[in-house]
């Protein structure tokens, strides 16, 4: 004799707790506790990681801001200015840093982006692709002093050129290209393959698909990586110390004559350390470099967001 099936009304009147497995509420409570604990641990570790950065920025702003508030700081150079006397400016170092970084970027960005495009879109595991990847890995770990010494041995000693800002840019190119290649390569791999296949199905050539679809889709990430590379090379001190001579006057020509830069100016001030004015210039130059890098990053993000493909 079979038992009668329970009526719908009896099922509706049965409490939901009776339908749950035994111990389900305890498991749910335990999971919530572990989730909350992990969340707080993540927030705590993030705060520990941010705390040194906030402290460095606080000290940098506190000690460097008085120099930046002076109009002379941006308008004048250090020609004829005594190191232990207030006055003078840093325009010569700013111009030198920007011109050297501009030349480095003009050379590095096309080489780095096109290399990454080849590795992602065209290389099929051939010997050229493997060799290129291997060389990029080697350049990624090259210290800046090694790049500077290599350029000094080749550009100055072997070819006989003079020390100049362009020699500094050549050394910075060796440091900037691998960063751009690695970042661009990762950004291109994130682009869905469906976008490429849809363009191919419409008869769009591969090169035009890359130029019109793939690169604009990954543009925001590529620009971010480029600006990270620019920020790295702008703060390098070894190449400017070896490959260019310091000067207290403005020099716009990166191919001829001595040319100062912010890292080199900070090294000069660090060697002196004779008075409060020297330390004020040292901290002011450091804060100026941070402000310039921050402004370049913000401007690059605005440009990339304007020209990148918007998701619908």
TrEMBL record:
Specify the protein's topology with respect to the membrane.
Multi-pass membrane protein
Q: Which gene underlies this protein?
A: pstA
GO-annotated biological processes: phosphate ion transmembrane transport
Instruction: Give the protein's recorded name.
Output: Phosphate transport system permease protein PstA
Ranges of residues in domain ABC transmembrane type-1: 94-304
Return the GO cellular component terms, semicolon-separated. Answer: plasma membrane
**Domain of life (superkingdom):** Bacteria
Q: Which family does it belong to?
A: Belongs to the binding-protein-dependent transport system permease family. CysTW subfamily.
UniProt keyword annotation of Transmembrane helix present:
yes
Recite the UniProt keywords alphabetically. Answer: Cell membrane, Membrane, Phosphate transport, Transmembrane, Transmembrane helix, Transport
A Pfam family annotated for this chain is: BPD_transp_1
InterPro entries, sorted? MetI-like, MetI-like_sf, Phosphate_PstA, Phosphate_transprt_permease
Q: Which GO molecular function terms does the record list?
A: phosphate transmembrane transporter activity
Instruction: Name where it mostly resides.
Output: membrane
Residue ranges annotated as transmembrane are: 40-61, 101-122, 134-158, 164-181, 213-234, 282-303
Q: Which organism is it from?
A: Corynebacterium kalidii
Localization, per the record, is:
Cell membrane
What is known about what this protein does? Part of the binding-protein-dependent transport system for phosphate; probably responsible for the translocation of the substrate across the membrane.
């Amino acid at each position: 004799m079979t038992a009668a099936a329970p009526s719908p009304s009896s099922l509706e009147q049965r409490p939901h707790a009776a339908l749950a497995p035994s111990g389900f509420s305890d498991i749910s409570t335990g999971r919530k506790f572990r989730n909350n604990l992990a969340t707080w641990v993540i927030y705590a570790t993030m705060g520990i990681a941010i705390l040194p950065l906030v402290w460095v920025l606080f000290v940098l702003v506190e000690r460097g801001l008085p120099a930046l508030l002076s109009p002379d700081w941006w308008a004048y150079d250090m020609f004829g200015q005594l190191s232990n006397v207030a006055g003078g400016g840093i325009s010569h170092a700013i111009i030198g840093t920007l011109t050297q970084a501009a030349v480095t970027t003009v050379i590095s960005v096309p080489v780095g982006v096109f290399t990454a495009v080849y590795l992602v879109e065209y290389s099929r595991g051939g010997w050229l692709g493997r060799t290129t990847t291997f060389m990029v890995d080697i350049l990624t770990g090259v210290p800046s002093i090694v790049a500077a010494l290599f350029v000094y041995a080749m550009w100055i000693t072997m070819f006989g050129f003079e020390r100049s800002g362009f020699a500094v840019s050549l050394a910075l190119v060796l440091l900037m290209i691998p960063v751009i290649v690695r970042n661009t390569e990762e950004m291109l791999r994130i682009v869905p393959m469906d976008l490429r296949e849809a363009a191919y199905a419409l008869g769009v050539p591969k090169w035009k698909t890359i130029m019109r679809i793939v690169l604009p889709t990954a543009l925001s990430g590529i620009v971010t990586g480029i600006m990270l590379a620019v920020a790295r090379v702008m703060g390098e001190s070894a190449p400017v110390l070896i490959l260019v001579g310091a000067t207290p006057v403005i020099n716009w020509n990166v191919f001829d004559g001595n040319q100062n830069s912010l890292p080199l100016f900070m090294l000069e001030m660090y060697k002196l350390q004779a008075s409060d004015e020297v330390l004020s210039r040292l901290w002011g130059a450091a804060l100026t470099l941070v402000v310039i890098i921050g402004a370049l990053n913000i401007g690059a993000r605005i440009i990339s967001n304007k020209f990148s493909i918007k998701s619908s």
